[in-house]
From TrEMBL:
It is an enzyme of class 2 (transferase). Specific and highly efficient GDP-D-glucose phosphorylase regulating the levels of GDP-D-glucose in cells. This is GDP-D-glucose phosphorylase 1. InterPro entries: GDPGP, GDPGP1_C, GDPGP1_N, HIT-like_sf. Residues 24-178 form the GDPGP1-like N-terminal domain.
Amino acid sequence: MWKHFKFDPHSINLSCHTDVKLNEFDTLLHTEWDRALAQNLFTFQIDNQVKQRVLDGDLHYIVELNPSRYEKRRLPYAFEHVITPFDKNKFNFNKIKNEEVNSEQQTDKHLVIINNSPIRSYHVLLVPDRQLEQTQISTIDSILFALEFIVSSTHPFIYVGFNSLCGYASINHLHFHGIYMPDRLFLQTIVCSPFHTKSNCYLHDFFDTEAFAFEIKSVNDFDKVARYVYKITNYLTQSEIAHNLSIVKGDSFSVVSEPALRIFIWFRQPKIGIKPMDRCNFACLELSGYVFLRYAEVFDDLTELELRENINGIALSSELRAKIKEDVKHLLDQ
C-alpha cells in the first residue's frame, strides 16, 4: 500500500563534508512528502523561503523564523512524568490518515510519516511498531531504526532527534524526528572528551547541560552502540530524568579526518506541564545547533550568548550530574 524502502548495509553514508545531494532513499522521501503537500495534508502553507540567519559566535547557531509551526500545530499535551501510560483516547499515530505515511521500512512496522506541522520542509517522523502503542520511551529496535534511517541518506546535514516526555516531547507515542538541516550544525564537528574507554563513550561538556556521546564508523557497530545508548536512555527513563537524543553525521571523536555517525544523549532539567513559548524552547534541535522561532523580534535579537546561558540554565545540579555520570560508568562496565 505504501512506498517501501529497504535498508542496505552495504551502502551507508557517514560524511558531513560532502556536497548536498539526494540518492534513491532521499528522492523517495521528498517525492512522497511533495505528494502529501499537493494533497493538502499539512496544517499550514509551507514556506520554502523562511527567514534565516546564522548567529555570530563560535557555534554558528542556525536560526529560522517559523510562526506557523507554533500557531497552527496540534496543541501539545501536558506531561508530568517521563514515564506516562499510553492513552489511546489522545492523539497517537494510529489515528493518522493513510495518506500521511511517507514510506515504510518493513511492512506496517517501521513507518516514516509526515509531520503535518513541520519545522521545515521534508520534516518526517520515524514511528516504529506503531500498532504496539509504545510510549515515548526509546527502545533498542527504535534506535536501530533511527540509525538505519540516517545512514540511508546521502544528505550531509540530515538529522534525527528524540525528546523524552518532560524533555519537550508533545505526543506520548514512540517517535523520532527526521529533518534535513539547511547547513552543518556545530554538533557534527565539536570536540568531545573521552568518558568511558571500554564502551568508547565520550562526554559533550561544552555546556553545563552535558551529553553522553558515541560514534559509529561501521554498520557492524550498530547493534553494539544501540545497546549502549539504550542502557543510558533506559537508566534516565527509570530515574525519571528528562533527556534528549540527537544523531548526526560528523567527524570521528578520535580521528578528526575520519567520518562517523555521532549519537548524543543529554540529561537535563524537566519541562513539566504545558510548554509555554516565550522566546525559545530547548529540545533536541536547540541543543544541537538549530533554533526555530515564533516571534520576529526574537529572531532579530537572539544571540549565541543568550542561547548558551539558557542551555546552561537547564542543567541539573552538579551533584546530580556527578551521580548520573558515575552510574552510567557502572552501567557501561557491565
